[in-house]
Design brief:
By secondary structure, the chain is mainly alpha-helical. The protein has a domain of 59 residues. It is 76% helix and 0% strand. It contains four helices and no strands. The longest helix has 27 residues.
């Protein structure tokens, strides 16, 4: 029984959902990517005004996580041109 539960749990962890690369998903991801770009910019401004090292480290961690998410999105849609990624963020 324990072997079955362990095996089932491992299967749950290993199962990876297929990425949705449809046109609708693409539009939504581009919008999300651009919103992350704006948020990162805002956090960098906040970090530049901050003096507390612990808070600066926290902000760096948030920026790093968002940058990883942006990279994941770019890998999902390699056909999108640089100009589209870096377009207007509003």
């Amino acid at each position: 029984m324990i072997k079955y539960l362990f095996s089932k749990r491992l299967q749950d962890v290993v199962d990876v959902k297929a990425e949705d690369t449809s046109e609708e998903s693409k539009r939504n991801h581009v919008l999300y990517y651009k919103s992350l770009t704006k948020i990162i910019s805002d956090i960098q401004k906040e970090k530049n005004q901050e003096t507390e090292p612990a808070i600066k480290n926290h902000l760096d961690s948030r920026i790093e996580a968002m940058e990883k998410d942006r990279e994941r999105i770019r890998v999902m849609f390699p056909d999108i041109k640089e100009e589209e990624w870096n377009g207007d963020t509003d």
